[in-house]
Design goal:
The chain is α/β, with parallel strands linked by helices. The chain contains twelve helices and seven strands. The protein has two domains: 182 residues, Rossmann fold (3-Layer(aba) Sandwich); 61 residues, no CATH class. The protein is globular and about 60 Å long.
Length: 306
């Protein structure tokens, strides 16, 4: 209903501060009502286990079903908040197909992410093999996480496992120039434009005082936000340093109609085996939000009859 990953993080942080627990962001889509969230908090308060619980990389978005599971690496900053955007996709996928998200180590725990994409992929593969010990596997990557899914597939194949399909959902190979451009756009839209509007009504002096306060005496929420941004930048830097190698297995790219077509050429140059590209409606942000049903339908077609 208009929410996004940063709002999800803010909601969970404020909720945890209020109740003194460490509830995960996945709570928003595993218990997507106020009553459901209250029950989950009640359980945690009863057991007093929330503060020490370790959350694995594997996040069940729709764990039930008797068909082969689909494992999707979260895009963006890689945290559980990013997986919120796939809740709509899960709603429209085959009810018999288990659907699991994979989150990155870092932004949720406010710790340093893995040093390399290879380390990320190795951990994710250990996690999915707890659910599905042997192939054939179907692995996906969204947004910048396509390279992590690619490395997962490379490692599984080297281990003698079959990867039925590698599916990239409006994914692009991360480049530092693109990341910096997005950072500039984000800084303008989140900070500069808002402060310019405030300056028109409250004066430049008040805006300057507020900027000084943020730097000299940030609130606890702002300190968490600054730390999250630093971890996110580190995580994306790890992704940009990855050098993809030719991939011999089947690769499918679901490309949003209103995104840059040149990214398809980059993936095509890596594909040394069968490569397919299918168009889905919307752009990089709306294909999972406004067009989740159409994207899920196309994804199921690519997953096949199994």
């Amino acid at each position: 209903m208009g929410g996004h990953s940063l709002l999800a993080l803010q909601l969970i942080h404020e909720l945890n501060a209020a109740v003194g627990l460490d509830m995960p962001v996945r709570l928003i889509f595993t218990d997507p009502t106020i009553a459901g969230i209250a029950r989950a908090i009640g359980t945690e308060l009863t057991t007093r286990f929330g503060a020490s619980k370790r959350y694995n990389a594997l996040v069940p978005l729709k764990p039930g079903g008797d068909r082969p599971p689909f494992f999707l690496v979260a895009g963006g900053a890689g945290g559980e908040a990013e997986l919120v955007v796939y809740a709509g996709l899960a709603r429209y996928m085959d009810a018999r197909r288990p659907f699991f998200g994979l989150r990155a180590h870092g932004i949720d725990e406010l710790v340093e992410p893995h040093e390399t994409v290879e380390e990320m992929a190795a951990e994710y593969n250990r996690e999915i093999r707890r659910i599905q010990p042997d192939g054939p596997y179907t692995i996906g990557g969204s947004c910048v996480a396509g390279v992590v899914a690619l490395e997962m597939a490379q490692q599984l194949r080297r281990d003698g496992q079959e990867v039925r399909t590698l599916i990239l959902i409006d994914s692009f190979i991360p480049r530092w120039s693109r990341f910096m451009r997005n950072e500039i756009v984000r800084f303008w839209s989140v900070h500069v434009r808002r402060d310019l509007q405030q300056a028109r009504t409250g004066g430049l002096l008040n805006v300057a005082r507020e900027w000084r306060r943020r730097v000299v005496n940030p609130s606890p929420e702002e300190q968490i936000g600054y730390r999250q941004i630093r971890i996110m930048r580190t995580y994306l830097a790890r992704l940009t340093s990855y050098a993809p190698k030719p991939y011999l297995g089947p690769m499918v790219l679901l490309r949003a109609a209103n995104t840059n077509a040149e990214e398809a050429g980059r993936w095509r140059s890596i594909a040394a085996g069968r490569f397919e590209m299918h168009e889905i409606p919307g752009d990089h942000y709306t294909h999972l939000r406004d067009y989740a049903k159409a994207t899920a339908t196309r994804l199921e077609e690519c997953l096949g009859a199994d």
